[in-house]
Specification:
23% strand, alpha+beta, five-stranded mixed sheet, 515 residues, five-stranded antiparallel sheet
Length: 515
């Protein structure tokens, strides 16, 4: 070839092996890419037939002649397949053969361009194997319904657990909209639609609620919907994981009914103070015993986990170290949960002593306890003059600690938390609900923040035990703190309400007797 800029460019390309062949398939030109990919210098291949690069099996099968014939017939020939190098190793090649003609349509020869795609082939194979492993793993899971939805909510995959839980075979449900699992009441408010909207806007949607099986029966489900986006951040669908928690729900309902029966019995036996005191002491002893029996194995789990992390760290595979870390984290959360459950159980006691409590001092003590997180978040807490009331200092301190820590915690990343606390008198006829204590003087205490806020349709739910509006990975907690606040307010004859708006902060208002 003449040393033109174009010929120099072709000659210097190392990512592509470029050959020129005459009409008989003899190599007349080979660039430096031939040596880079095949291992042959151009001096070793020029003048030799292109069959040099074909296996005996391919030559016996007429593959070379077939390629050249196809190139002449349809204008070019392209394929991907295994090719061998000079050292005998193989690589995955993309091959294009193009015939070259004179102006008089006489065949001069062929150009052949080869590119090494071994790395891409390996990546594709690894991805294929990974997807196959994931598919097999999901398909054999029996305790969870795991399936995919398309961007409109139609069911695109179906595992064995989904069939067991919901009663549908794959051929019965694929292509249908996932709203078939919802109750008529949920469909009436377009619940499936806004669940997907929340998943798209926040990344996921999680809740517990009633769902419908194929036979029409209901089950209590834990549901997690996760939005799936591609590399261009385009929505490609959703994953949906559902677990049947009906038995747990029934147990909770039975426990709730049991508590109701206990309260009724306590009212009926209110004239027997001695018996009531004895029952309360037994309940407190049981709570302490249950707390101790739960805490001890948790401490052992954490201690053994630390031993594994410190003494056997070098012998642990990465997955093992990760699992131990997750175990430690779960045990720590369980310890916090047990402590808060014990706190909540103590609030049910009716013999808590009352005393004059200066609320400004209570808030000052709480701010001292929260000094570290206030400093880390650079939070600003503004406290106006608060009254002195008759109450239980320990319980009121718990109430303000929970409200202040929530106000500082539920803020957007990078946002400076601002919390304002103020009080004002409230006439009895302006209380949110009728109170059990007949008192002419009431005080309202507002705790206002500039945090993330929430939709007010959840304002009753947040005071219930274990109710969360956010995942634990977003904002840590047990889901018990606000239930404790409500219980403390009620123990003092008052109540607590909340007003909020997404993105515009939250105000909790505690109503208490002023004297």
């Amino acid at each position: 070839m003449n040393s033109t800029p174009f010929s120099l460019l072709v000659q210097s390309l190392q990512e592509y092996a470029i050959f020129m062949l005459d009409a008989a398939g003899i190599i007349t030109f080979a660039n430096t890419g031939v040596e880079a990919i095949y291992g042959y210098p151009s001096s070793e291949v020029i003048g030799r037939p292109i069959s040099l690069f074909y296996s005996p099996e391919d030559l016996a099968g007429g593959k070379l002649l077939h390629e050249l014939q196809l190139a002449r017939t349809i204008g070019n020939y392209g394929e991907e397949g295994w090719r061998s190098r000079k050292d005998g190793s193989f690589f995955w090649a993309n091959v294009v053969v193009t015939p070259i003609y004179t102006d008089e349509k006489e065949l001069l020869g062929f150009s052949k361009i080869v590119r090494d795609l071994t790395q891409r082939k390996a990546t594709e194979q690894a991805l294929k194997e990974s997807e196959e492993r994931y598919r097999l793993m999901v398909e054999v899971v029996k305790d969870y319904a795991i399936f995919m939805l398309d961007p409109q909510g139609h069911i695109a995959s179906w595992n064995e657990g989904a069939g067991r839980l919901k009663g549908y075979r794959a051929d019965e449900i694929l292509g249908k909209h996932f709203s078939v699992f919802y109750t008529p009441e949920d469909l009436a408010i377009s619940k499936p639609k806004w669940e997907l909207e929340i998943a798209i806007s926040t990344g996921k949607y999680e809740e517990e609620g009633w769902r419908v099986r194929k036979n029409g029966s209901l089950f209590w489900a834990n549901v997690l919907i996760t939005a799936v986006f591609n590399s261009e951040n385009k929505l490609v669908g959703f994953t949906k994981v559902t677990r049947d928690l009906t038995e747990r729900r029934q147990a909770e309902q039975a426990l709730k009914e049991s508590e109701e029966r206990f309260r009724s019995l306590a009212v009926e036996l209110s004239h027997t103070n001695t018996e009531l005191e004895r029952a309360n002491k037994e309940l407190e002893s049981f709570a302490f015993m249950a707390s101790h029996d739960l805490q001890e194995p948790l401490r052992k789990i954490q201690a053994f986990g630390e031993m594994l992390q410190t003494q056997f760290a070098e012998h642990l595979p990465p997955d093992g170290a990760n699992l131990i870390q997750r175990m430690q984290s779960a045990a720590g959360r369980m310890q916090v949960l047990v402590r808060e459950l014990l706190t909540y159980s103590r609030l049910n006691r009716g013999d808590q002593p009352l005393e004059a409590v200066t609320l400004n001092q209570v808030v000052t003590d709480v701010l001292n306890d929260l000094e570290t997180i206030i400093r880390e978040k650079q939070a600003i807490v503004q406290v106006e003059s608060l009254p002195t009331i008759s109450g239980n200092a320990m319980q009121l301190r718990q109430l303000f600690q929970n409200l202040l820590s929530n106000a500082i915690k539920f803020t957007r990343p990078g946002q400076t938390p601002l919390v304002q606390i103020k009080s004002y008198p409230v006439p009895p006829d302006q209380l949110p609900v009728q109170q059990s204590i007949n008192n002419n003087q009431w005080v309202a205490i507002d705790v206002t923040d500039n945090g993330i806020g929430f939709d007010e349709k959840y304002r009753e739910r947040i005071f219930q035990m274990f109710q969360r509006l956010h995942t634990r990975s977003e904002y840590p907690g047990t889901g018990i703190g606000l239930a404790i606040c409500k219980k403390v307010a009620e123990n003092h004859g008052g109540t607590i309400t909340v007003a909020s708006e997404p993105g515009h902060g939250t105000t909790f208002t505690v109503y208490l007797p002023a004297s």
